[in-house]
Amino acid sequence: MNASEPCPILAVDGLKKTYATVVAVDGLSFTINPGEFVGFIGPNGAGKSTTMRSIVGLLEPDAGTLRVDGIDVHTDPVGARTKVGYVPQELELYRYLTGEELLRFVASIRAVREDLVDERIESLLTLCELRDARNRLVRDYSGGMSRKIAIAAALIAEPPLLLLDESFVGLDPESTYRIRRHLERVVESGRSVLLSSHILEMLEKLCSRVIVLHKGKIVADLLRDGLQEALAKTRQGDLTSLYLELTGQEHLFEE
Amino acid sequence: MATSGAQHHPSTHWGHLNALVRVARQRLSHRLGGDSVSVGRIVTRIAASCLCLVGVGFLLVPFEVHRGNEADPGGVVLEMAFWFACLVAALQSFRIMETLYRTGDARALAPLPVRASSLFLYRLFSNAAESVGVVLGAALAFLPVLWRGDPGLYWACVWVFFAGGVLTLSVGFAVQLYAGVATVRGDNDFGNFGPASFAISPGVALGISVGIILLEKLVAEELLRGGMTKGAQFGLSVGAAVVGLSLVLAYRWFVRDFYRALAIFMEADSVVIDVGYEYFKGGAPQLRGWERLLSRDLIPLVRRDRLQYRRRFMLSRLLVWGAALGFMVLLLVKGDEAVSRGLSMAVPMLVISLFARPWGRLFELELEPGFAHTLPIDDNVQLRSKALVSLRETAELGVVFFFTLAIGIGLGFRGWDFGVGAAGLASLIPFSASTLLLVLARRRRVAAVLAGLVIVAGTAFLGSLTVFALLPLAIILWSSGALALRSSAPRNHKQSGRASAPRPLELDALPPSQGSER
Fold first, then answer.
1. Which of B316, B317, B318, B331 is nearest to B83 (CA)?
2. Which domains does chain A have, with CATH numbers?
3. Strand A63-68's sheet: what is its strand order?
4. What is the pLDDT of residues A57-107, one digit of tens each?
5. Are strands A217-223 and A209-214 parallel, antiparallel or unpaired?
């Protein structure tokens, strides 16, 4: 790597993962640099969640290396996790804690400075519109509220890399807008986001780069300029068209 | 680039441990009802449980046949304590596997950067706290030994429980973490089993623990004979060495490879049954065995519930088999010297309640992915399915006890006619009681546990009077359970044997644990 190039916050090299006979991820390689907002798209089963779970060390890959801010996930999973805020598709939260207790717990595990904890909790509860529900148990939260508290927990330590797996599912438009704006500010501050979503219109507006996965492989990795160029060549000039073409589903245009 | 490092202080080992302990306290407090929890109510429950345990002890421990002598100073009572310690060890071993890899706590913590050293101590402390509770419970059940004026023997029994608890804890941690490490590295015999080694490891840990508990029982006998002999010193040294070495190795393996082992376990454990498959598939399902007796809408649900239960709690059933065979050996070797009639009647219920508990577990399982709630499946059919599977599983385990008890009693000391009769009734009790417990377990877990203890005590009491007294008990249990189950069915669906309109399950109808963390 050239000395003038920024050290990637995430480096995935040759990642491979097979479930029984199904190849979920097949030799995936990409890097994410600081300040990038990367959209991760692909059909169901393309390997998005598998990749994200491997990055956090929740899955043991069959092959390949994963480095977060230079830390090898394989040899130092805890060290790598300090650099990542992760919101999984299927939430696993402490259901018998209140929203505020959950955030305080994550803040203490992630070693957020004591004098910053209260301020961060207030601002995140406001962002996620959970101030009134702060003293309610997470088990009593709705699906959208649970997702918002999980997002707040991922944001509380301001980690350099955020992994959001379908994190906007079930959120109301107001919350979606607020969190989108917040993520834009996160990226402006030099941190990075890898967002997996099927809401392609949102990704088209938010992302500085889009990675398209299909059958466990990258079929396109486009920066914003390249993306605009590629979009212009598609049938309808949007990300949905590009996605359908890249994943071999052009026939849907005819239906 | 703005890094967050400037805003963080370095996380310390004790900082993480403090956070984990604090959050465990908070969760417990919320589970008990938070600020509204009544201290009086908790104290009453604990007192009731203690009384039940002492009562069970009075009925189960065969004091009347305790004939300690120089050759066997502990007599039958110490023998009982040993077997009881083994039973507790089996529970502990399985519980260690659950807390290390499977509980909701493990899954909630998995993506967080918790220091492995802190997490190890937290897991060890939380398991130790549970073990202390179990050891205290066992010590309470043996209080009648003290009551009858044999303090030396009582403390010898307590020693066996204590040693069993500590040994199982340390050996259980070491073996089950070794299974994880071996699976990660795949470079030895354990690792060759792949993720199956996680399922095998509690059994291996139990086998080792039982061997050393036996040694500690011999130590207790030496102490009863004449104090700290060389034999006792040797036994104590071996026990201490095993505990120390196990903990050191467990710590090492945990810090080195736990997170990777956890990842492999979670992947293997995440396989779920496709609930809606049979429903959407349509057509007539191919009927197997007892399914011919069931209505068509019940069959896919029964298959689902049975598969879920059997896969999720495979080890529990193996433990019941092991306990049944162990008890048979005890009956054959010791005969009526070691085992009262009451105990032989109560053992199937006790063992099935402790290990298998299908009437409770079927309602605790996360059976349905969300979409199943949207299928037009009658709530009543769901309840019937769980009840049927619960009864069937209990009956199958009862059959195991029928054969082992019949052989043990018949061949061991009482003759075949008595053996077969006693075994038949003893194995019928769990089947009958499970109907009642099924209803109670859906409402309150504590009520179900207390009811289980009362049933065990009642069984032992009646069994000690006459074996035929069990028959009315079985009938009463079965009919009251069946009535309660019937009255608890959702009224607006009672008439329906067919699928009704989609309707979400009422939260009140769910057991308290259904929404709990796994």
1. B331
2. 1-83+161-166+199-255 (3.40.50.300)
3. A22-32, A10-19, A63-68, A71-72
4. 999 899 999 999 999 998 899 999 999 999 998 888 888 899 999 999 999
5. antiparallel
- Return the H-helix or E-strand segment holding B257: helix B230-269
Minimum Cα–Cα distance from A153: chain B residue: B112
pLDDT tens figures, A117-144: 999 999 999 999 999 999 999 988 998 9
Q: The complex's ipTM?
A: 0.86
User: Which positions ≥6 away from B482 have C-beta within 8 Å?
Assistant: B435
DSSP A21-78: TEEEEEEEEEEE-TT-EEEEE-STTSSHHHHHHHHHTSS--SEEEEEETTEETTT-HH
pTM summary value:
0.73
Q: Is A89 helix (H, G, I), strand (E, B) or coil?
A: coil
pLDDT 10s digits, B328-359: 887 777 666 656 666 777 778 778 877 887 87
| Strands of the sheet with A217-223, listed across from one edge | A84-87, A161-165, A192-196, A37-41, A209-214, A217-223
The C-alpha atoms of residue A207 and residue A36 are separated, in whole angstroms, by 8
Which residues from chain B sit within 8 angstroms of residue A189, using beta carbons?
2
Say if B260 is an interface residue toward chain A (CB within 8 Å).
yes
How far is the C-alpha of B293 from the C-alpha of B274, rounded, in Å?
24
Contacts of A81 in chain B (CB under 8 A): 111-113
Residue A201 CB neighbours (<10 A): 11
A37 touching B (Cβ < 8 Å): no
- Which pair of tokens denotes residue B368? 């349905």
Alpha-carbon separation of residue B143 from B86, B87, B147, B332 (angstroms): 19, 18, 6, 28
The SS3 call for residue B506 is coil
Most confident range, picked from A56-65, B218-227, B478-487: A56-65
Residue type, B196: A
Q: How far apart are the first and last CA of chain A?
A: 47
Cα B139 to Cα B61, B154, B159, B201, B227, distances in angstroms: 12, 8, 9, 28, 21
Residue with tokens 């495979």: B314
